[in-house]
UniProtKB/TrEMBL annotation:
List of residues binding pyridoxal 5'-phosphate: N76, G176, T177, T178, G179, T180, S257
Top-level enzyme category: transferase
Name recorded for this polypeptide: Cysteine synthase
Keywords noted in UniProt: Amino-acid biosynthesis, Cysteine biosynthesis, Pyridoxal phosphate, Transferase
E.C. code: 2.5.1.47
Lineage, opening ranks: Bacteria, Pseudomonadati, Bacteroidota, Chitinophagia, Chitinophagales
Catalytic function, reaction form: O-acetyl-L-serine + hydrogen sulfide = L-cysteine + acetate
Family: Belongs to the cysteine synthase/cystathionine beta-synthase family.
Pathway: Amino-acid biosynthesis; L-cysteine biosynthesis; L-cysteine from L-serine: step 2/2
NCBIfam families named among the record's database cross-references: cysKM (TIGR01136), cysM (TIGR01138), PRK11761.1 (NF008735)
GO terms for biological process, alphabetical: cysteine biosynthetic process from serine
Gene this chain is encoded by: cysM
Cofactor annotation: pyridoxal 5'-phosphate
PROSITE patterns to which the protein is assigned, alphabetical: CYS_SYNTHASE (PS00901)
A Pfam family reported for this protein in Swiss-Prot or TrEMBL: PALP
Length: 296
């Protein structure tokens, strides 16, 4: 990209780089590319969805002058929305559970967002809904918003197709709202229906920040099971160990959901005769320094 005086921060959204794993890949006949979403301006894959949801609401006239955005979130979405609200000159209130880490609260406040703490995540959702009911607020609701997966259909998917020159055979992504996997699956299957779409989720009893194994009744509204060819479950221990190996052996400093997705990709690579796997690395390790992810 050439830079000139009209280059703006939003031009730096997406077009994230990919690097092939060099040391932890168990199968030399398979290439595993890590797509580094932590290089987005707000530090995570969620910048894409946040931009797309705010832009969509503005274009459709749902977000009118004087209205405020509100969202219950504890993670990357909150930081991404705070960044995008600052770029669009919008006010935003983010409602977080009390146990949200200090660096997350401070990151959102750094972009000028108002942060409200609730006792629990459920409490945060209830509070946000109450505010919306009062009027003057718009909730983007990433779990049900087509602009969430639309961002990945329009950008992440095409970037992967372009950068692998159409040679991708498998796409691996951790699933939270499922926006990433739903959008990328739509795009890649249109180019080549043979591309295998693999979702990664935590095993029962395992906790991996940013992703969930959703009980049937809580599945995100945007999730369509038939767009995922295979779901692989990863234990918390495997996700932690792979996150640490990524940092120590590959120089890739990332969060635990990336470790989970790469753990699934390594298992998959071991099963294949050959192939080209692309695995999403949703964010950077800095965001987890106050946890014990990298300690010991
Ligand atoms: N990993 C992390 C750390 C995340 O914050 C998210 C977003 N919740 C994901 C993975 C999953 O992305 P998506 O919501 O698009 O499924």
């Amino acid at each position: 990209m050439t830079v000139n005086k009209n280059t703006k921060l939003l031009d730096l959204l997406g077009n994230t780089p990919m690097a092939a794993l060099q040391r932890i890949n168990p199968n030399p006949a398979v290439t595993i590319y890590a797509k580094l979403e932590g290089t987005n301006p707000g530090g995570s894959v969620k910048d894409r969805a946040a931009y797309s949801m705010i832009k969509g609401a503005l274009d459709r006239g749902e977000l009118k002058p004087g209205m405020q955005l509100i969202e219950a979130t504890s993670g990357n979405t909150g930081i991404a929305l705070a960044l995008m609200a600052s770029l669009f000159g919008l006010s935003i209130e983010l409602v977080l559970p009390q146990d949200a880490t200090r660096e997350r609260v401070l990151s959102m406040e750094a972009f000028g967002a108002k942060v409200t703490l609730a006792p629990t995540m459920e409490g945060a959702i209830d509070y946000a809904n109450e505010q919306v009911a009062k009027g003057g607020y718009l909730m983007l609701n990433q779990f049900a918003n087509p602009d969430n997966y639309g961002a990945h259909y329009r950008t992440t998917g095409p970037e992967i197709w372009r950068d692998t020159e159409g040679h991708i055979t498998h796409f691996v992504s951790a699933m939270g709202t499922t926006g990433t996997i739903m959008g990328v699956s739509r795009y890649l299957k249109e180019q080549n229906p043979g591309v295998q779409i693999v979702g990664c989720q935590p095993m029962d009893g395992s906790r991996i920040p940013g992703i969930r194994k959703w009980p049937e009744a809580y599945l995100p509204k945007i999730f369509e099971r038939e767009r995922v060819d295979r779901i692989m479950e990863v234990s918390e221990a495997d996700a932690v160990q792979t996150t640490r190996r990524l940092a120590r052996e590959e120089g890739i400093f990332c969060g635990m959901s990336a470790g989970g997705a790469v753990a699934a990709a390594l298992r998959l690579a071991g099963e294949l005769k050959e192939g080209v796997i692309v695995c999403i690395i949703p964010d950077r390790g800095d965001r987890y320094l106050s946890s014990d992810l990298f300690a010991g």
